[in-house]
Design goal:
Length: 352
């Protein structure tokens, strides 16, 4: 069988990455999909059990900040394109350990850019570096307005500052070395396989276990939410049809105040678990605000909608319903990730 393209997906064992890897492996059987992931606490190969034996899929364990290793890998496999998702991704962790975020998100991205440049700088034809980023680079909105692709960067957390920096480096490699690139900035994702430190899976897990639901500040923070599969489909479209040198904002047209979202989640969970109405809401506890907390993010996704014909396939209520069902049907997954059991799975599957 002839392989048409070698695509390197970084961070493919993580939440969004695992959906992207699966989508590409199943949709493009003639492409060879490499998944490079360091398997940090957030990387879990159990997410990809169903495709691990496919002939067009290859997992490589490694750290994107390890320059010698990345360079060797690129020389060995000569990837045609990269879809770069590997990152430290949790804002609260970035407040505790900003340097870890600079290392992976900034330096790691640069190591990949350099390795890609070394391979193809004499002929970029048919090559592409696709950087996956966040709407958090734009900072915070007031009660009105939306982030567009031309909104000035104004990051407030070490996480968003590191992602903003990596976006700038990708653009700089485009301008300076002619590297063909695209960037997309997406709003908050939710859905199956999300590590339960993030709001929706954390709260689903806590409701199941009758544990408090810690809501920051007054709960009035507003976020736009997108079902993770809709993000994967947008990534596929941008990868194949996006224009070089362009940025695309991806959003769910779906803004929720945290407190309203948590109340909806509680209502759905009571129903699913057969508990009396109002049971889960009693678990809500307001906790001290996160420092530098952005009030509101909202994405204007007109460009990707108009130019590439993308729009979300599910409403928030449908997506949340599906996500909850998945966590309830996969309680073993939840137990494994909360107890670090998936490391054992890796060792069993691949050896140390
Ligand atoms: P995640 O934390 O679930 O997964 C990150 C993956 O990267 C993990 O598998 C981890 O093992 C891997 N990784 C971390 N450091 C690495 C390193 N040094 N070398 C190799 N692999 C490493 O993250 P996610 O939520 O799936 O986010 C993926 C990407 O999408 C990130 O770039 C993030 O900034 C971006 N993003 C996320 C959201 C969201 O709502 N989760 C929204 C917009 C953009």
């Amino acid at each position: 069988k002839s392989i048409t393209k070698k695509i390197l997906i970084t961070g493919g064992a993580g939440f969004i990455g695992s959906h992207v890897v699966r989508y590409f492996v199943n949709t493009y059987p003639d492409d060879l999909i490499f998944n490079l992931d360091a398997l940090t606490y957030a990387g879990n190969l159990e997410n990809l059990k169903d495709i691990q034996d496919k002939s067009n899929y290859k997992f490589v364990k490694g750290d994107i900040t390890d320059e010698a290793f990345v360079n060797r890998l690129f020389i060995e496999y000569k990837f045609d394109s990269i879809i770069h998702l590997a990152a430290e991704s949790h804002v609260d962790r970035s407040i505790k350990d900003p340097l870890a975020f600079a290392k992976t998100n900034i330096l790691g991205t640069m190591v990949l850019l350099n390795a890609f440049k070394a391979l193809w700088q004499h002929s970029w034809e048919g090559k592409r570096f696709y950087h996956i980023s966040t709407d958090e680079v734009y900072g915070s909105l007031g009660a009105t307005g939306f982030f567009t692709e031309t909104t000035a960067y104004d990051p407030n957390s070490p996480y968003s500052a590191s992602k903003a920096s990596s976006d700038h480096f990708v653009r700089a490699y485009g301008e300076t070395f002619g590297m063909p690139y695209v960037i997309s900035n997406c709003s908050n994702n939710y859905g199956p396989n999300q590590f339960p430190e993030k709001l929706i899976p954390l709260f689903i897990n806590n409701i199941i276990n009758n544990k408090p639901l810690p809501v920051y500040g007054d709960g009035n923070y507003t976020r736009d939410w997108l079902y993770v599969m809709d993000h994967a489909v947008a990534i596929d479209l941008i990868y194949h049809e996006g224009k070089n040198g362009e940025t695309y904002n991806i959003g769910g047209f779906n803004e929720w105040k945290n407190i309203d979202l948590v109340k909806l989640l509680c209502k759905l969970m009571d129903k699913k678990l057969g508990r009396a109405k109002g049971t889960s809401e009693k678990l809500i506890t307001f906790v001290k605000d996160r420092p530098g907390h952005d009030l509101r993010y909202a994405i204007d996704a007109t460009k990707i909608n108009k130019e590439l014909g993308w729009k979300p396939s599910v409403t928030f209520e449908e997506g949340l319903d599906k996500a909850i069902d998945w966590y309830l049907e996969n309680e073993e997954w939840l137990t494994h990730v909360t107890s670090g059991e998936y490391q054992k799975y890796y060792n069993k599957q691949y050896g140390k």
